[in-house]
Design goal:
Layout lengths: L2 E5 L5 H11 L15 H6 L9 E8 L5 E9 L2 H11 L1 H7 L8 H11 L6 H6 L3 E6 L8 H15 L4 E5 L5 H9 L3 E2 L7 E5 L1
Antiparallel strand pairs: 1-2, 2-3, 3-4, 5-7, 6-7
Helix pairs in contact: 4-5
Length: 200
């Protein structure tokens, strides 16, 4: 296995969307849950290569024609990200995906989310303005690449004078919780149980 970590680019958006779908069901594939498989990625992955205040790194498999097999994405300023997305990202998706199109509950859930997008808990913003998402295809997990992605992100964020980063995860995904704990993440005081933060 020959893996390279590089900066995420806008041309990576389709690959990011695919990885998001294949891990969106508490770490397992959500393909069967969606008729519109692009929806999870439009929330949790694609904005991070299209909107301001964002950053990202991807894992590419050099032996599979540089296929993107994992990513870590985030924003250096979550409130600025939310404000920009509320004006320029979610409205166009709400128009494109009215809930009347949905035939599956998961699609309907995302389509409604475009209309009433959640914002980060104040406790998380107090911890750090920066947040992140990380996903790696199952066949590349448990090989140390997640730790390397987080390390790459930490170097970048420290260069931006950030002291830490936080994330949210599916509370059903206990493997993710253990992974984050092993990297030094801890529960963010005052935030919901599925929010964890890391001080650099």
């Amino acid at each position: 296995m020959s893996i390279t970590i590089r900066k995420a680019l806008e041309i990576d958006a389709p690959a990011l969307s695919r990885i998001c779908l294949l891990t969106a069901n508490a770490g397992s594939t959500a393909e069967a849950l969606h008729d519109y498989g692009e929806l999870p990625g439009l929330v949790y992955a694609v904005p991070y290569v299209k909107l301001p205040t964002t950053w990202g790194f991807v894992m590419v498999d050099d032996l599979r024609d540089n296929e993107v097999v994992g990513y870590i994405l985030g924003s250096t300023d979550t409130r600025a990200f939310e404000a920009y997305a509320a004006e320029h990202w979610w409205p166009q998706l709400a128009e494109k995906y009215p809930p009347s199109l949905a035939r599956k509950p998961a699609d309907e859930q995302y389509m409604n989310l475009f209309r009433y997008m959640q914002t980060a808990p104040d406790a998380c913003i107090d911890f750090s303005p920066a947040h992140m998402h990380i996903n790696i295809l199952p066949s590349y997990q448990k090989k140390g690449w997640g730790r390397k992605l987080v390390a790459s992100a930490a170097v970048f964020m420290k260069s931006k004078n950030l002291r830490g980063v936080w994330l949210g995860f599916d509370p059903r995904n206990n493997s993710a919780r253990l992974f984050y704990e092993n990297l030094g993440f801890a529960h963010v005081d005052g935030a919901p149980d599925n929010n964890m933060g890391l001080i650099f």
